# Entry
Amino acid sequence: MALTASLFDHQSDDRIVTHFTHEHLAEVLIQYGGALVLYARQWCSWPDDAVQEALCDLVQLNSPPRDVPAWLFKAVRFKAINLARAERRRHGYQSQSALERDHWFESRHETQAQARELESMLSQLPDLEREIVVAKVWGGLTFVQIADLTSKPTSTVHRLYLRALEDLKQRFEGPSDDENNGASRIEKYNSMELKHE
# Structure
């Protein structure tokens, strides 16, 4: 699809989009909506608001950014962090606010326990590593885009990504799991859907 190539492949200059239409916005939501909500959920309890504010900013730009996905993730991060600051002020820095967050994953009844387990494992990662994993795995961003997003060198992003995956693998398999059990658990997690309202 030419529209996809011009919007999401920053290497393609064959068709330049000068402003966003409803079709462009729908395409962005379909391709990145769930990943953006998951990404924002790391920082705030209102991730849909962060995504909506970022999309509003995108539509109001005079011309679309050269790399729409990277721009969106950066904008969502900024909006989510600002919303989190406002939440902390409103709640008087209560530690209870972390418990009130929505769960990160939407799951079918039979996989709810696995979704909570994966959410728990992700929340145990250091913040930067979790951010990198979510942006790479669910957001589909490249290491170059994530490096720009996090203001870290690409080599550091890659190293932290590999370290986080190794940490998650160790948590997945655990000391008592055999290889087959660990592999089947990973397959179950891959079938879970991102929560996207």
User: Anything to note?
Assistant: The two ends are 26 Å apart (CA to CA). The chain has a mean pLDDT of 77.
